Amino acid sequence: MSNFNESAQPAALVLTHSNGKESHGHDQDLSEAGIRPWGTYTVLEEGRGYKIKRIEVKPGHRLSLQMHHHRSEHWIVVSGTAKVICGENEILLSTNQSTYVPPCTHHRLENVGVIPLILIEVQNGEYLGEDDIVRFQDDYARIS
Question: What is the pTM of this model?
Answer without folding.
Answer: 0.77
